[in-house]
Amino acid sequence: MFFIKNMLFKSKPKFNKPNATESSSFTFATEMAQMNIQLQETFRMLPDFVSRELTNKVTFGVYYLSNLVDSELLNKEILNRLIEIEELLSPEKLVDLLPIGQLLLDDNWNHMQQYILQGWTYIHISGYKYGILVNTAKQRERALTKPENESQILGPQIAFTENLETNLALIHQYLPNPDLSEIAINMGENTQNNIRVVYLRNRADLEMVTHILNTIQALDLESLLDATVLAQWMEDNPNSAFPQTITTERVDRAIFPLLEGKVVIVVSGSPNVIICPTTFLDFFKSIEDYYYRWTVGLFLRGLRVLGIMISLFATAVYVAALTFHYETIPQAFLVPLAQSRARVPFPPLIEALMLETIIQLLGEAGARLPSKVGQTMGIVGGIVIGQAAVQAGFTSNILIIIVALSALSSFTTPVFAMSNTIRIIRFSIIISAGIIGGLGITMSIAFLILHLLRQSSVGQPYFYPPYTIENKNKRDGLVRMPFSSAPKRSVFANTEENNPKGSSDIDE
């Protein structure tokens, strides 16, 4: 009995809780020996922690994590210089002797602990209840590359990386404007992420910037692994299927919104930045539209909107026409349509849902496989399954064409998050069309418009500017205008007619 119980219910592993989970917190000690004991106790679970005492005529305590520091910088600029000092100095005077950019005097044990965990080195001088923190962190980052998920033919071909400093440097490189402002926020008890809210002080609405800052600071997150996670926490309506901010890896896509008066949020450790506020139509604009002549940009944007319409409604119209509205089918199509569906045992709704599910499965499997294998599997799988389904009488040729066209059209939107939303919404429209026909499609459209009108992005209207086009600054929506007629700023920016709003404290 006990054997069966032990086999079914595996006992939990035992941990020495006091040693494995508890963190130590002390106060700074003046004596070097006491500081050694306390630091050894604090970092006892990290084998790479190094505690050294440098003694020539004066003794300095040096503490760091060897796997996080730049060993060349540490040896050349800290250890070699400390060993040459022949008289006892105060921490304030020692700061002037070390040729390193970032040094801090600190007497807070938790701060010191966090900085050491980020690659900083702590220097302690006996007799003082505080010490010096020196930034010796080794930067580990990949080289700048082309955007992999947002490819374009024209325009800059450079993407953000996971390094916060590199991403901010790229923004400053493209936008060397003295009004470019940054506000630093620290978030994540476990991950200790640095966040920068970037905006142009002379263009952004300061009231809007204040709202974004308050939203981020109100979050109490233990961990933050990527900017996409922060974007979800910032959403005004997290239950909506529609994304309410844009995340991008393209540098030029982040620069354009800044010039329009929007806000860009950079998160350490993430190759994506957040653009907010965002309107529904922003998801269908590509920065490449502005690199082409306006006629080409207008055509491409129109083609993109047509693709979204096909993706949302093509299959639903097929289901509604075959189920409720036979009279709407042109006579020339009746015979081939009847022949195509002659062997199909399922009603149009089941047939369409089955094919849509297969298409989504193929897409999801192709995305998870290695790139070369994924493309091959997607093409081969689609052809083989499609032919087999038609020969077996599970579906009709015409529906396969419509479903494939709908799936292809859903990826014409430049923002991948919106294409995923369209894939989900398409199912609900198909079901409503299969239950009550054209009335279901009409009700779905009405519901979507009402839902979009009720949404907001960081406090700003989401379905904007379609329902109110009052002046020139609100023209850049579905239509790509010539530069001479296009708005110079976003609808959310402060314009010349609109005096700056919000608190001036944000500039401090």
Mean pLDDT score: 82
Got a strand count?
Answer: 12
Strand order of the largest sheet: 1-2-4-5-3
* Count of domains: 3
Helix count from the secondary structure assignment: 18
Please give the largest β-sheet: 5 strands, antiparallel
Helix content: 40-55%
Q: How are helices and strands ordered from N to C?
A: HHHEEHHEHEEHEEHHEHEEHHHHHHHHEE
List unreliable stretches of 5+ residues.
6-22, 497-508
**Rg result:** 30 Å
Question: What global shape is seen?
Answer: elongated
Q: What's the structural blueprint in terms of helices and strands?
A:
Elements lengths: L1 H7 L8 H4 L11 H11 L6 E7 L3 E7 L5 H14 L6 H7 L5 E4 L2 H9 L3 E5 L5 E4 L29 H11 L5 E8 L5 E8 L5 H12 L9 H7 L12 E3 L2 H10 L2 E5 L5 E4 L11 H4 L2 H30 L7 H11 L6 H21 L2 H21 L5 H13 L6 H21 L1 H17 L1 E2 L2 E2 L47
Antiparallel strand pairs: 1-2, 2-4, 3-5, 4-5, 6-7, 7-9, 8-10, 9-10, 11-12
Helix pairs in contact: 7-10, 12-16, 12-17, 14-15, 14-16, 14-17, 17-18
Can you describe what's shown?
By secondary structure, this protein is α+β, with helices and mostly antiparallel strands. It has 3 domains: 32-135, no CATH class; 164-278, no CATH class; 294-460, no CATH class. It is built from 18 helices and 12 strands. The strands form 3 sheets. It has a 5-stranded antiparallel sheet, with helices on both faces. A 5-stranded antiparallel sheet has the order 6-7-9-10-8, sandwiched between helices. A two-stranded antiparallel ribbon has the order 11-12. Helix 12 runs parallel beside helix 17. The relative contact order is 0.09. Belongs to the GerABKA family. Keywords: Membrane, Plasmid, Transmembrane, Transmembrane helix.
